[in-house]
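Notes on consecutive records. When two proteins share a document, each keeps its own sequence and its own token line. Never mix them. Below: protein one.
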Amino acid sequence: MAGLTLLCVTAALLLLTSGGAIPPPEEAARMARFVLHNCDWGALATLSAQEGLRGQPFANIFSLSDGPPGPLGGSGVPYLYLTDMEISVQDLEINSNASLTVSLAQTPYCKKHKYDPQNPLCAHIIFCGSIVKVNDSEAGLAKKALFSRHPEMESWPKDHNWFFAKFNITNIWVLDYFGGLKIVTPEEYYSVKP
């Protein structure tokens, strides 16, 4: 187990250093793509539809992927593998609007530089939009993106009726330096490579 952990940490460090140096602060769209591509999970916030919490914000952790690991693998589209049995997915069935936050705090980058997760230099991205099921033509792409990073997903119980979904991005905020949030449009975001 320790060998596998070391291998994962080494792979993450290589990913952050091999041809994929962190973008400079003036390239906010590239930073957004970079952070998403280097993160394997994010905090998804929904508006709760649960009794006693109805209408309240509710954040939950979800595995995600925008493509296979490596500097050329990212599409920028956050894909998720979901089931209607999950409490946040039940919220999304009532209101598909959500926000998704990803942070370099989950990679070795911030620890290496001794950045606290709340330090702006430990970049994090906030996406707003909605969750939508992918159509049949996009399902293969979503499956490859997710299963390449989360191979355990293939063995999850079939009777849970898993489905592929994506985060349909409408707004993007980048916090990667001092001075406040930067706004990136989806058009800017998708036009650059991480």
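Protein two starts on the next line and is unrelated to protein one.
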Amino acid sequence: MLRNVSHFMVMSLAPGYARTESFCKAAADNATSQEITYLHLDELQASAVVQEVCQDLGVVSIPRDLARFLIQRSSGIPYYCEELLRCLRCNDMLLFRTRRRGGKAEDNWESLITSAAEASALAATSSSGAGNDGRVCIVRPDVNLENTMLPATLKEIALAQLDQIKPLKRMLLKFAAVIGPVFTTQLLSHILPTGFRHKMNCLLD
């Protein structure tokens, strides 16, 4: 395509899945081409996630529990973070209030995150002539973020990836998912069917 089509193309790829192995090999074979530039995209750092959320919401700070929820659930992937945030907003789980600098806070603002995102947001507010008011975001008191369902868009991505995994690996993943995101191999082995345990280490590798 590079030889025959005069177009600029940007392609993204999540490695590690069977459906992409042949594509990865083809891309690697062309690694020496001067027409191809490779960029490895790392996950967003926690501070960058908070900054992006503050920017998207138009606020100067967010609560620690909201920041922790978005950082852990998104794994630093911007699209995942955006979808999680959109889900929270669409379901009215977030509240927005105005905080006046130097004034008495209406709520316990000590629990709010103070970060580089807040500093940059305050600078932007000052430069725009908005005065001394700064919007902050809080989670509704009756909302438990740990019980929040995964948005349909992200659930479809997870299911599509799960369908691409070979049956034995898929079975192992489902047993591991019962335990949680972090588990010991000893605990996983304990809940696996007896005839399946001897294959565990190989499948985990």
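For the record: The longest helix spans residues 78-90.
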